[in-house]
Amino acid sequence: MSKIKLLLVDDHEIVRAGLRMLFAAENDMEIVGEVGSGEEAVLAAQQLQPDVIIMDVAMPGISGIEATRRIKQHNPNAAVLALTMHEDEQYFFEMLNAGAAGYIPKRAAPDDLVSAIRVVNTGNVFLHATLARYLMRDVLGPESAVADELTPREREVLTYIAEGHTNREIADALVISVKTVDRHRENIMQKLNLHSRVELVKYAIEKGLINVS
Question: In terms of pTM, does the model score above 0.70?
Fold first, then answer.
């Protein structure tokens, strides 16, 4: 089985050193490069063709947001996962709008980061639980027409989907069968006319359900 190729982007050497130690223990991952600025990240992404780019948001020179935007223009298949100390809505939505496939705070547990990498590598979106609430609050808020279309259980399932959980994890958390989760997922996507987590995020941004300004 081919390994997930990782590019580390952070201007702090101590952070990159910690990530190297973390990923060294994962048999399905390998670090193909590491850089300390947004400009270097854009070049490295083109040269190394990584599967997943672990991107800091605030760096000298161009930000992780602008670097992500440029990378996605030239390497649309590369999954950018924001790993940052910034947990406010502005950075969160700007990174998603730039094309990031995931957003996770640096205070998150190491296992969460490893899981996030595997999720975004499959083409899905990973939003850490503390940050997914921003999206779910706006999509499923009392003022949203979408909220009226979904049952309470479907809202629960949708929240887990946006957080990057698998069908098995959702089933275990809600104490229902995987088949029931599948049915809820189909109903949700049909009602919203969506087909993936990526489309869910894009839908929320494009329809103005979230504020990216």
Answer: no
